[in-house]
Design goal:
The structure holds three protein chains of three kinds. In chain A, the strands form three sheets. Chain A has a five-stranded mixed beta sheet with strand order 3-2-1-5-8. Chain A has a three-stranded mixed beta sheet with strand order 4-10-9. In chain A, strands 6-7 form a two-stranded antiparallel sheet. In chain A, about 45% of the residues lie in helices and about 20% in strands. Chain A has helices spanning about 5-20, 40-70, 90-115, 150-155, 255-285, 290-295, and strands at about 125-130, 135-140, 145-150, 180-185, 190-195, 200-205, 210, 220, 230-235, 250-255. Chain A is of the alpha+beta class. Chain B is mostly helical. Chain B has one helix and no strands. By secondary structure, chain C is mainly α. Helices cover about 70% and strands about 0% of the residues of chain C. Chain C is built from 16 helices and no strands. Chain C has helices spanning about 1-5, 10-15, 20-25, 30-55, 70-105, 110-130, 155-185, 195-230, 240-275, 285-295, 310-340, 350-370, 375-380, 385-415, 420-445, 460-490. The longest helix of chain C is centred in the N-terminal third of the chain and has 36 residues, at about 70-105. Chain C is globular, with a radius of gyration of 23 Å. The chains are: A alpha+beta, B mainly alpha, C mainly alpha. Chains in contact: A-C, B-C.
Chain lengths: ~300, ~45, ~525
């Protein structure tokens, strides 16, 4: 019987066939992005390290299995060797050797964890709040804050039976009205929380995701390479209800000077808005204290 | 310890079976209750 | 024969009522096992239909068929039905049929409780499935039921919680039955370390179930009181902690994963040795490996929660403890390979499925090892990479092992050989399509597609299309499985007692010493085990 060969040929054939199908197959659709920060590159390196270790182990184990299936077939007259029931030395070996391989993986991963969790020395803190189903970004200490929602073009196309072609929409489901803006070459601390249910903030190019949980504040840090300004996209990564798939994250990374100019502009806008709000408060004071508090809370 | 008599014909085996089942059932209920106690002490 | 001497005494349980009453009132382990297996097959098809709704919607970007809310109900119900309705009852059905026959017992130790467990499970699922028709629809917060989102469920909420309680009670009673049967009812000479590995794997699984099902029940009870009685176990508005639920859930959930896979390990061990015509390599190491995996499953739960913002020490601990699981799992894979080594291998359908298990479960094991590494998990977490991982260990893992078990023992159950040619076709179609279905999901996850979304950015279109094609191919292949089973139940070539070849120097286990189909009552006098 040629079943063992068929098994191998069938399985690999299916994978190869599947792999050759997509017309636009390129590396970025097959593997994790290297990303645009020191952290993301280290995480990518960690990923590739374990991937290759697994590939090597797979070659040995699968190789042995395939060899056994080809060589020790009854149809080829193989007779079972009843003396091969256990072998203490061999069994100890394949218990101990993996321990060393695992230690080899554990050391760099612990090392990277320490780095990932170290949020000290950040120059800017942005508070990120998840809502059903949009984000709020608050640049702490600057008075700048705004909401960030799915852009209108995607929103129209994503309706059930909209008849619109998602391929025709610019960055379908990965575009927002107000993107988060960050300076490049700067360590930025993100404080994550949520207003209603759990969400998770994730931009693959920054290498990290972290949950935004109501009643709790989580920390993470990002730092975009100084030479890599650009627009980076991600989306909510924790099931948060009906429109979980429709709360994208867009981060525009600008050189420091441009960012400062942007922030100054936003601060002016925020001041104008709050002066406006103050006017409202003054008008409503005549109605009594209750409305004043409400207006301020807005 | 090992028999293969149908418990329906062996009252002694039947008793042993039921006794072990009750012990395991108590363990299950105890795990359930423990969870509330742990949360009750930790949460206040 | 002893049977005739006692005939008068046990006439009362030798005869079985005809028709529907037989199935409603039976306390026979074989009948109950059959009911569990049929129930599981039905749930496998229902859960599969839900999966096809999901894959149809994901065939291309944009929403074509379902509302996002309904999509979430489908992902949630698909998981609950497959985990609690298909995989677990299938292994319970196999346990009911095979454990008494493997250890030389006349029946399960507590036959009435056995029947009660089955009907509890049945009604639990009627309740759970009925939530699809309630106002607000079925639960849609994922099978993990994370608060606060799950507290937004409509009328389905208390029904689903009650259903989970019933399932839990059913599983606990089923496990008690397995433990008592194995501890008290083994044939003379059948010491624990002579027991077939399938029975061993179930003994350990049963202990796991008793330890963790009450934890899930406790967790969902707290959800219930948060929802209706204004407690604040998990409600942040009242000072509760949503992350606490995740800890409780995964303290149940990780052992639950092994509850599904350990019986599969047992099945594969039995089949690999039979068709290599050589006893399993390192039997005792296999038993200890299962026991170590079961133990480790209690100290790794938070690797499902690396992104919740745990202390650094916690992340390190759970990374390292999770990596340890690779060691006993490796021992199992190496021992299976060594069993094949210098054997005399033939490739009947059960062996084909067992071999596919060896390869594809191991791939799932590798992705599991990758996910254990916390820094890399920050990228993998909640993406399709995770979806690919757990489907590789559950579908070509647990489900293939269950199919292998059906092809292995079906002649013993029905007395007929099934259509080998069709079974081979079923194997090849399942194996090819399962890879077309799940392998591309690794790519999707790495490239940045989150799980549990009904619609996606256009760069993910191609692989989603491939995956959906695989899903429909896999789904259709399973109709063939149903047909093969029905055909064998109706008739076919007579099966011998041994069914498969058992060489003289590797005697068959006890289940192969009774005729096929196995008589309604086996081992009324204890067999001698040397």
């Amino acid at each position: 019987m040629a079943n063992s060969k068929k098994l191998l040929a069938g399985t690999t054939g299916a994978i190869v066939a599947a792999a050759s199908l997509p017309a636009r197959a390129d590396w970025s659709l097959l593997n994790m992005p290297v990303g645009v920060s020191e952290l993301s590159r280290e995480i990518y390196g960690m990923h590739m390290l374990i991937l290759w270790i697994c590939v090597v182990i797979a070659i040995f184990t699968f190789g042995a299995m395939i060899y056994a299936m080809v060589k020790f077939r009854k149809s080829k007259g193989a007779v079972a060797d009843m003396s091969m029931l256990h072998n203490t030395k061999l069994e100890i070996a394949w218990t101990i050797v993996p321990v060393f391989i695992l230690v080899g993986m554990a050391i760099p991963s612990v090392d990277k964890l320490i780095k990932i969790e170290d949020t000290t020395g950040s120059e800017l803190t942005i508070k990120v709040t998840g809502y059903q189903w949009f984000w709020e970004y608050e640049y702490l200490g600057t008075g700048v804050s705004f909401y960030s929602r799915l852009d209108e073009a995607s929103n129209e196309a994503r309706q059930l039976d909209s008849g619109l072609d998602p391929e025709a929409v610019d960055h379908y489901l990965r575009n927002v009205d107000n993107p988060m803006v960050v300076p490049t070459g700067t360590k930025i601390r993100l404080l994550l929380t949520a207003n209603d249910v759990n969400h998770a903030w994730w931009v693959p190019d920054f290498g990290m995701k972290r949950d935004a949980i109501p009643g709790f504040i989580n920390e993470m840090w990002i730092s975009v390479d100084a030479d890599k300004p650009g627009t980076y996209r991600g989306q909510c990564a924790e099931l948060c209800g009906r429109d979980h798939g429709f709360m994208p994250i867009v981060v525009v990374a600008k050189p420091r000077a441009e960012f400062d100019a942007w922030l100054a502009g936003e601060q002016v806008k925020a001041q104008q808005a709050s002066t406006g709000a103050a006017t409202t408060v003054r008008v409503e004071t005549t109605d009594g204290g209750e409305s004043v508090r409400l207006a301020k809370a807005e | 310890m090992s028999t293969a008599v149908d418990p329906r014909e062996d009252p002694a085996l039947r008793r042993r079976n039921i006794r072990l089942a009750i012990v395991l059932g108590i363990v299950a209920v105890a795990v359930y209750v423990t969870f509330f106690l742990v949360k009750g002490m930790g949460g206040e | 024969m002893a049977h005739h001497e006692h005939a008068a005494e046990h006439a009362h349980h030798d005869e079985k009522p005809a028709g529907i009453m037989r199935w409603l009132t039976t306390t026979n382990h074989k009948d109950i096992g059959t009911m569990y297996l049929v129930f599981s097959l039905a749930m496998f098809l229902i859960g599969g239909l839900m999966a096809l709704v999901i894959r149809a919607e994901l065939f291309q970007p944009g929403l074509q068929f379902v509302d996002p809310g309904f999509f979430n109900q489908m992902t949630t119900m698909h998981a609950l039905v497959m985990v609690f309705g298909a995989v677990m009852p299938a292994t319970v059905g196999l346990a009911n049929w095979m454990i008494p026959m493997q250890i030389g017992a006349p029946d399960m130790a507590l036959p009435r409780m056995n029947l009660f467990s089955f009907w509890l499970l049945f009604f639990a699922f009627m309740l759970l499935l009925s939530t699809l028709f309630l106002p607000g629809g079925a639960p849609a917060a994922g099978w993990t039921l994370y608060p606060p989102l799950v507290l937004q469920t409509g009328d389905a909420f208390p029904v689903a919680v009650f259903a989970v309680h019933l399932m839990g009670a059913s599983s606990i009673m089923g496990s008690i039955n397995v433990i008592v049967t194995i501890m008290n009812m083994r044939a003379p000479g059948m010491t624990l370390l002579k027991m077939p590995l399938f029975s061993w794997s179930w003994l350990i699984t049963a202990y796991l179930l008793i330890a963790v099902m009450p934890v899930l029940a406790g967790g969902v009870t707290m959800l219930l009181t948060d929802h209706f009685f204004a407690t604040s176990f998990f409600n942040p508005a009242g000072g509760g902690d949503p992350v606490l639920f995740q800890h409780i859930f995964w303290f149940f959930g990780h052992p639950e994963v092994y509850i599904m896979i350990l019986p599969a390990f047992g099945i594969v061990s039995e089949i690999v040795q039979t068709f290599s015509r050589k006893p399993i390599f390192g039997y005792e190491a296999m038993v200890y490996a299962i026991a170590s995996i079961a133990f480790l499953s209690f100290i790794v739960w938070a690797h499902h929660m690396f992104t919740v913002g745990m202390p650094l020490a916690g992340q390190m601990f759970f990374t390292l403890s999770t990596m340890l699981i690779a060691i006993p799992t490796g021992v199992k894979v190496f021992n299976w390979t060594a069993t094949l080594w210098r054997g005399s291998i033939s490739f009947e359908p059960p062996m084909l499925f067992a071999i596919a298990f060896l390869f594809l479960f191991t791939i799932g094991g590798f992705s599991g090892l990758m996910l254990a590494i916390a820094p890399a998990d920050f990228q993998y977490h909640d993406t399709y990479f995770v979806v690919a991982h757990f489907h590789y260990v559950l579908v070509p893992g647990a489900v293939f092992a269950i199919m292998a078990a059906v092809y292995y023992w079906l002649p013993k159950w029905t007395g007929h050989m099934y259509d080998m040619k069709l079974a081979n076709i079923h194997f090849w179609m399942s194996t090819i399509f399962v890879n077309v279905l799940f392998f591309p999901q690794h790519f999707l996850g790495l490239a940045g597609m989150p799980r549990r979304i009904p619609d996606y950015a256009t760069q993910f279109s191609d692989w989603n299309m491939v995956s959906s094609i695989g899903a429909f191919g896999f789904g259709l292949s399973q109709l063939l499985f149903v047909y093969i089973i029905l055909k064998a139940a109706k008739g076919g070539a007579k099966a011998t007692a041994g069914v498969w070849e058992h060489p003289a120097d590797f005697p068959a286990g006890l289940e192969w010493t009774v005729p096929s189909p196995a008589p309604y009552h086996t081992f009324e006098t204890a067999p001698e085990v040397k």
